[in-house]
TrEMBL record:
<dbReference type="InterPro" id="IPR001841">
    <property type="entry name" value="Znf_RING"/>
</dbReference>
<dbReference type="Pfam" id="PF13639">
    <property type="entry name" value="zf-RING_2"/>
</dbReference>
<dbReference type="GO" id="GO:0004839">
    <property type="term" value="F:ubiquitin activating enzyme activity"/>
</dbReference>
<protein>
    <submittedName>
        <fullName>Putative aminoacyltransferase, E1 ubiquitin-activating enzyme</fullName>
        <ecNumber>2.3.2.-</ecNumber>
        <ecNumber>6.2.1.45</ecNumber>
    </submittedName>
</protein>
<keyword id="KW-0863">Zinc-finger</keyword>
<keyword id="KW-0808">Transferase</keyword>
<dbReference type="GO" id="GO:0008270">
    <property type="term" value="F:zinc ion binding"/>
</dbReference>
<keyword id="KW-0012">Acyltransferase</keyword>
<dbReference type="GO" id="GO:0016746">
    <property type="term" value="F:acyltransferase activity"/>
</dbReference>
<keyword id="KW-0436">Ligase</keyword>
<feature type="domain" description="RING-type">
    <location>
        <begin position="155"/>
        <end position="205"/>
    </location>
</feature>
<keyword id="KW-0862">Zinc</keyword>
<keyword id="KW-0479">Metal-binding</keyword>
<dbReference type="InterPro" id="IPR013083">
    <property type="entry name" value="Znf_RING/FYVE/PHD"/>
</dbReference>
<dbReference type="InterPro" id="IPR052788">
    <property type="entry name" value="RING-type_E3_ligase_ATL"/>
</dbReference>
Amino acid sequence: MSSSTESYFIYIEESQNTIPQSFSPHECFLIKLHHFHSTSFNHYDFLIPGNILCDYDEFESVDQDSLSYTFLRNTFLSVDLPHEVLEETLLLMGEYARYMNTVNFEGYRILEMDVFVDTTSNISDDENAIASLSKMLEKLKVKDVDTSFCSREQCSICLEEFCDGSEVPHIIRTKCMHFFHEHCVARWLKQCSFHNRLYSCPVCRSQIQ
């Protein structure tokens, strides 16, 4: 994704638990933030209460009186990121935290998240990658979607039904026969691009292209 001032990529993944679960009696996230910029690299560790991070969404991001807004901005003051990059990073962290909570079947009280932010990417390369991704998604888009399909199928990433009573969404079907909202799988594929990986299905890891 790019901004008017510089180009940047954000990639988030769950990391293996490396600290004792008895370290904290409360549910929280260990955020391991890795920032690549020009010739420098900075690493930061933050321990964030689970409810603070999971509550942070687009509504909280504009409510300057909210606890999550105040806590997260004070916590990340030491991170040298442009405002819009930090805002996008926090929103993605909140979204990913909610996902990690839903799949925390082991009941871990501390969940670890690796956050990679690269603000050194070449803008023209980014634009070429986005154009290539858009063409591929267009080829994978399900044509002539009807409401009966939407009501019985759900996105394999967000697990929400495609039919929510509004207009029919753009649905992507991979050759391994997994279905996704276009915006859900696009975010995953951008992460593949960030790490120079082949585009793969987020469910079974089969190669998409």
